[in-house]
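pasting for the record
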Amino acid sequence: MDELSILIGGKAGDGINQAGLLIAKLFNQLGYRVYVYIDYPSLIRGGHNFSIIRVSKNRISAHRDKIDFILALNQDTVNFHNKRLKDSTRIIFDSDLVQAPGMGLSLKNILKEESAPVITGNSVLIGALAKSIGIKWEVLEDVFRRNLSKETDLNLALAKRGYSEAKELLRVDIPEQDILPVLTGNEAIGLGLLSGGLESYIAYPMTPSSGILHFLADVAEDFNLKVIHPENEIAVMLMSLGFSYAGEKVAVGTSGGGFCLMIEGLSLSGMAELPVVIVVSQRPGPSTGIPTYTSQGDLGFILNAGHGEFVRFVAAPGDVDEAFYWSKLALNISWKIQIPSIIISDKALSEGSFSFDKTAINALKEEGPLLWDKKEIYKRYLDTKDGISPLAYPSVKDAVIKVNSYEHDQNGITTEDPDIATAMYRKRLRKQTKLINELEKHEVVKTYGKKSSSTALLCWGSNKGICKEVAELLGIKVIQPIVLSPFPLEQFKNALVGVKKLIAVENNATSQLVKLINSYGLDVDNKILKYDGRPFSLEELEAEVKKLI
């Protein structure tokens, strides 16, 4: 068996997300590479929740429409996903609530006999699944003990009931390859920031970025990290700039609506030259939109946010490896160049779970800022050749450290003098050259698939993985710009060499990446756009691309 897709579904409160992750880690323990897509409405109770767990001998980051196993905790799971069934699909279900062909287990009786709460019923189905595909009980027990911190023995007893009542239907092959960690995109971003020397993380919870806040709060004591939840996103941004002024490496996280409230603070970062990393995880808008689903609709907003002109660094990683790497690099760049850096994610990346390549951890070194050498009188905004002024922090002896949102001279003193204003504007904009030079050390545009092909898919962010798979199936090329500001025009043009048909793939309605490359005199031949809040499935994108090649 090269790959398998499993769907587990129920209502909010049935523990579907946790169950999906347990299934993923069960296969991960066998050496498979995994991807988990979670789908849930913005409800505390009720509604239909489901997770699709796809496992493969190869690394993957997209889901399929067709399913090999369905684990149904309610009738909706069977009814809503009828189109996903194949002739070979096997259904394991709660026989008290579901009518379906397949293997039924009476969760009501099992839970009563074990004195277990309803939310633990998914453990019974996971146990039955493990037996059905020939996974040894010892493997299942080890995964439960590693990943369940509450009522572990009870959940194992329930899984044992399902395991005992099931029969083997399909035996999986165990890949002979290393076991990789399984991380969500939010966890990878958090780990990247920590690896880059993060000292403070400030955020107001907003789906789908909230996972970064929760993850970092859980590990804060281990890393001597300050994690703060202020009253709103305005306070988040202003507080972060206070930490930055004090010399602490700081990051904030939000989604589009929260980023709206941060914009004045973003401009303050640009004028006061206060480094900060902002993670923006996209969801559909405008306004509240569809808050628990995915989108790539904020690119234009992020690239142009803030009043006035100032240098910013914007990167859109495409998977967990890149999320780790570019979040760490964003901290380095912010502090080396004293600018705001923005990491763009989305729900598909932030809340999806993926196999993580551990080699990404050591691929980049933490770097610090240029510090004041104490040889001359300190000027916070010293006008230097590259626009970067040496930093000093409050309480440093013999240094007056004045930052200013108003236009200012080299000492930070407010001014409206036209010559000084022009000189300081030019000083800040000279950082763009330094930033471009820094980025030349990194692979800012990536290509995949058949690189000699004259047809290429153009994608950004979380569409990387699915475009790679489709390209490999169809024998075409993929071009993925990771850095979006400053846009790496020369590298992008190099990637286009030999391409006669360029097809853009985006999760928005107005092809925002296409608009960006249009501004440089480049164009695409076709666009495949999806904006219903759901990511592309493998079958869906393959069919759309086939129509165009």
